[in-house]
Amino acid sequence: MRFTLDSNILVRALASPRGPALRVLEIIRRAHTLVLSQSILDEVERVLMYPRLQARYRITASEAARFTGNLAGVAHMVEPVIVRPLILSDPADDPVLYTAADGKADVLCTRNIRHFDTPAVQGFCSEHGIRVMTDLDVLRDLLK
Q1: 3-state SS of the chain: helix, strand, coil percent to 5?
Q2: Is the pTM of this model over 0.90?
Q3: What secondary structure letter does DSSP report for 122?
Q4: In sequence order, what are the residues at sequence separation of 6 or more whose Cβ sits closer than 8 angstroms to the Cβ of residue 97?
Q5: Terminal Cα distance for the chain, rounded
Q6: For 73-103, how does the pLDDT look when each residue is reduced to its tens digit (9 = 90+)?
Q7: At what angle do helices 61-74 and 7-15 cross, to 10 degrees?
């Protein structure tokens, strides 16, 4: 299967080494295809440098860059073309949605399910065969 992981999942994977996001990432890297774009990786690096995350997890800029570089090295990278904005509640999620579509992902994994819960986005996902799931839902499915 092909999976696109939203930046919020990837940040959680690095910041919470015992959490479900890291387990999902590890399983996907071993047995599936990870589909990402530079826009997702740029967002991950940017978020990892937020002062509140820095204060809590103490991730250095070089660690963040190494993490995203490693992801780019193992992922199928695409550069999504955003045909029309679909996620009006958070336009920053459009590149994630189009990464999944352009990369032919079966699953888009995110913690922001509500952003993908409009008729327009659901129709787009249905058209492209994309299921939107949380990391916990993906983990349950992968461990069956």
Answers
A1: 60, 10, 30
A2: yes
A3: H
A4: 86, 87, 108, 116, 121, 124, 125
A5: 15
A6: 999 999 998 889 899 788 889 999 999 999 9
A7: 120
